[in-house]
UniProtKB/TrEMBL annotation:
Annotated coiled-coil segments of the chain: none
InterPro entries tied to this protein: Bact_OuterMem_StrucFunc, OMP_bac, OmpA-like, OmpA-like_sf
Organism superkingdom: Bacteria
Keywords annotated in UniProt: Cell outer membrane, Membrane
Predominant location category: membrane
Pfam families: OmpA
The keyword Membrane belongs to this UniProt entry's keyword annotation: yes
OmpA-like domain mapped to chain residues: 117-232
One GO cellular component, as annotated: cell outer membrane
SUPFAM superfamilies xref list: OmpA-like
Cellular compartment(s): Cell outer membrane
Name by which UniProt lists this protein: OmpA-like domain-containing protein
Length: 245
């Protein structure tokens, strides 16, 4: 009786394992079939013919396809095919059936950011004003902050530095604290206008960086400056693109 129970348990475990494998294969097969479709579209867009991507190497679905049919193609076309398939989301890597050397996909250069110039143009003849010896933004400057937010919106995803400046009246530790508080007030105002908080950096430098040509005591040094910093490009992802043979 005990032997029979053990046999039933083993049989049940085997059935569960088989079902799990079947489910995994079915799920993986669905994903691989979708990737196969995406690969055919990608190759067509890359103007590559005669190349197929096999997402079922060894009979099992895989995110690492084997490319077939590149024997008589130029290295440039083979490279274009490998890069096109490797760029498909969820593809983990590309290999050619006849062996390749490691290649690198070079990302496209990011488009130039014009927000910096747009904001500087807005602040060329106007400045964000604050109440005397305070970080409270002057109500008359709210409209200007609206315009700054609009100018910055196309560059969301970049890091935007907000730097507060003062003149040299008063103690420098106090000036640094006040300039930082004013930058933080502008930061909060931009967040209220829909600029994501995680892309804003506020800091204050007191009177240490006056406007070029002005004495540090000149009230015109009291200002807020914006710097739009491009995000660091992601490190290129290696793919198995064909090298010299």
């Amino acid at each position: 009786m005990r032997i029979g129970s053990t046999s039933l348990l083993l049989a049940g475990a085997g059935l569960c394992a088989a079902l799990a494998v079947g489910v995994a294969y079915s799920s993986g097969g669905t994903i691989a079939a979708r990737l196969d479709y995406d690969a055919r579209i990608a190759l067509a867009k890359a103007r590559v013919t005669g190349v197929t991507a096999d997402f079922f190497p060894s009979g099992w679905p895989s995110r690492h396809p084997i490319l077939h049919g590149g024997h008589n193609l130029s290295e440039a076309v083979r490279s274009r095919a490998a890069v096109a398939v490797a760029a498909i989301p969820a593809v983990g890597g590309v290999h050619w059936e006849d062996g390749t050397s490691l290649g690198i996909v070079t990302p496209a250069a990011p488009p130039p950011l014009h927000c910096q110039n747009d904001v500087e143009a807005l602040l060329l003849s106007r400045t964000i004003r604050f109440e005397e010896a305070s970080a409270a933004i002057d109500p008359a400057s709210q409209g200007l902050i609206d315009e700054v937010a609009t100018a910055l919106r196309p560059c969301l995803g970049s890091v935007i530095a907000i730097t507060g400046h003062t003149d040299s009246s008063g103690s420098e530790p106090g000036n640094i604290a006040l300039s930082r508080e004013r930058a933080e007030a502008v930061q909060r105002a931009l967040i209220q206008r829909g600029i994501p908080a995680d892309g804003l950096r506020a800091s204050g430098v007191g009177s240490s960086k006056p406007v070029h040509g002005l004495d540090t005591s000149d009230p015109a040094n009291r200002r807020i400056e914006f710097s739009v910093l491009e995000t660091v490009p992601l490190r290129p992802t290696p793919v198995d693109a064909p090298g010299p043979r």
